[in-house]
Design a protein that fits this description.
The protein has ten helices and 17 strands. It has about 350 residues and is α/β, with parallel strands linked by helices. The chain has two domains: about 140 residues, NAD(P)-binding Rossmann-like Domain (Rossmann fold, 3-Layer(aba) Sandwich), CATH 3.40.50; about 170 residues, Dihydrodipicolinate Reductase, domain 2 (2-Layer Sandwich), CATH 3.30.360.10.
Length: about 350
């Protein structure tokens, strides 16, 4: 099929793996242009990955009739406005997570895309990798029986010790749930199904954070968002999920995700990765056993969701990392804080 031409908005830290995969791994895509507020970053990316066009403004890139899909790699608080701008310009959009800051904004984007006959989707696409796809296969084949529960934990002390510009993690649109939650919630929905409702409690352990990484070492950050989340999820099939997401805790590991069934327990790999390892416990053995990966995409395959979207565009088909999934996940992410603020269990509306 003819390659789908992509315009990339944003050439920051996450862009490198997208440029690499979209230009040399996935056959469905061609990166036609790149735009960043720092032209030097855009030019460097264009030179490294053989991209023909560099634009100074997003408006110039949207005016390029060759570009079919915009890959939105802006900061989270900018996703809504830039995605809306692209949709209004008649472009399909694949956005980094989350889709928007609020569920209401996400609904507006999904409605706008549907109204204009445009494709809308987004990250994360790690659930399409070998690790989580193998877990789904094990569940579907009955290795743990009927799913009755899950536990998800993302525990770390924040990003100011290693990220060169960590301020946005603590600003509106940031925090552990909006930053890392999409990986866990997407994996849980893919493995168990729709979430029916949530109950949450949130907190902010520190009013300020101090950057200890270069080049902004010593700079103080005002914390605008919750940095500790505790929550419960009820899935439509009756399963109950327990969730902890925090940027406030010293710990020896970050990722933990388990699925509990009537006939066994499944340890799911880090949902921020594409590979394993997967461990299965069956009652007749009483110990966890390592399970082999059954599907491709074990390596860092970010952009896989976009490649499948490009194929769906050409073949007028469906793709997994679509607006239905990303919007449902966004409603889950934002419902925990709403539940905490309102002091009650919240039923979700999105299927």
């Amino acid at each position: 099929m003819d390659k789908v031409k992509i315009g990339v908005l944003g050439a920051g830290a996450i862009s490198g793996i997208y440029f690499k995969n979209l230009t040399s791994v996935f056959e469905e895509t061609k990166v036609e242009a790149v735009c960043d507020i720092c032209r030097e970053k855009a030019e460097a990316a264009a030179k490294e990955y053989g991209i023909e066009k560099v634009y100074d403004t997003f408006e110039e890139m949207l005016a390029d009739q060759d570009i079919e899909i915009i890959l939105n790699l802006t900061r989270p608080k900018e996703h809504y406005e830039t995605t809306k701008q692209a949709l209004l310009a008649g472009k399909h959009v694949y956005s980094e997570k989350p889709l928007a800051e609020t569920y209401e904004e996400g609904k507006e984007l999904a409605y706008l895309a549907k109204e204009r006959g445009l494709l809308l989707g987004g990250a994360p696409d790690t659930f399409l990798g070998a690790g989580i796809r193998t877990c789904r296969k094990l569940i579907e084949d009955g290795f743990i029986g009927r799913v009755i529960g899950a536990e998800a934990r993302m525990i770390c002390r924040g990003h100011e010790s290693w990220h060169p510009a960590p301020e946005f993690y603590y600003q509106k649109g940031g925090g552990p749930m909006m930053d890392m939650g999409p990986y866990y919630m997407t994996a849980l929905v893919y493995l168990i199904g729709r979430v029916q409702g949530v109950s949450g409690m949130t907190g902010k352990s520190f009013e300020q954070r101090v950057i200890t990484s270069q080049p902004k070492k010593g700079t103080k950050i005002d914390v605008e968002v919750p940095t500790y989340y505790g929550g419960l999820m009820r899935f439509e099939n009756g399963a109950i999920g327990n969730v902890t997401m925090t940027f406030d805790v010293h710990y020896d590991s970050q990722a933990f995700l388990e699925i509990y069934g009537t006939e066994g327990t499944l340890r799911v790999p880090d949902p921020n990765t594409f590979d394993g390892g997967i461990q299965l416990l069956r009652p007749e053995e009483g110990v966890f056993r390592e399970m082999p990966l059954l599907f491709p995409y074990k390596e860092n395959s970010r952009g896989l969701g976009l490649a499948q979207m490009a194929k769906a565009l050409r073949e007028k088909g469906e793709f997994p990392a679509n607006a239905d999934l990303t919007l449902h996940v966004l409603e889950i992410l934002t419902a925990f804080e709403k539940s905490s603020t309102q002091g009650k269990y919240l039923e979700l509306e999105r299927r």
